[in-house]
Amino acid sequence: QASLLKNDETKALAPASLQKELNNLLKFNPDFAEAHYLSYLNSIRVQDVFSSTHSLLHYFDRLILTGAESKSNGDEGYGRSLRYAALNLAALHCRFGHYQQAELALQEAIRIAQESNDHVCLQHCLSWLYILEQKIFDSCVLLEHSVNKSLHFGLP
User: Fold this and answer.
1) How distant is the alpha carbon of residue 34 from its chain centre?
2) Does the pTM exceed 0.90?
3) 1 CB contacts (<8 Å, ≥6 apart)?
């Protein structure tokens, strides 16, 4: 269903049906991180800011609590989840037009990424900063810097 929502939304279950199935799954296993992520995607589809924020935060909380993040990332532990949670929260707020909240979440993602010396996350933050600035101001400097850094790190 997540793949369908990302690639061809018309083939996915209807939003209400999908949410009903997810609620049943989460009733029996509230720590199922992937179900929270799918609920996040489904909530975005119906423009439900409260549910999408709730599901996104639960997804990253469950990822950290289950230890799945620390197993897959060696020394990083839950630090990677924290910075990407802040980055995704910024993107979510930007999508719903909450630019001040997006900026605060983005500042947090940048701070955590700088502490971890995560250049890829910082580059994603810079891209979102550019998008956010475009919503508020008109700035070409960030775009030029972002493109140069993306080329340097081999990012699209």
Assistant:
1) 13
2) no
3) 12, 13, 18, 38
